[in-house]
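Practice problem 4.
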């Protein structure tokens, strides 16, 4: 992955942080413009797996 951080660089780029972020962005970073998309656990895991492959 080419980035070391995300969400305004307040989170280190790793699977656990990405999962938390994608499950409920406003709860993790209040005031965030990213909405909660209501993704299932399976969707979050698939999206994180994909994001971790990007360079």
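Answer key:
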């Amino acid at each position: 992955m080419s980035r070391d951080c995300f969400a305004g660089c307040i989170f280190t780029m790793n699977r656990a942080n990405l999962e938390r972020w994608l499950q409920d962005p406003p709860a993790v970073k209040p005031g965030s413009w990213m909405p909660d998309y209501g993704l299932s656990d399976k969707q979050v895991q698939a999206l994180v797996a994909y994001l971790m492959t990007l360079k």
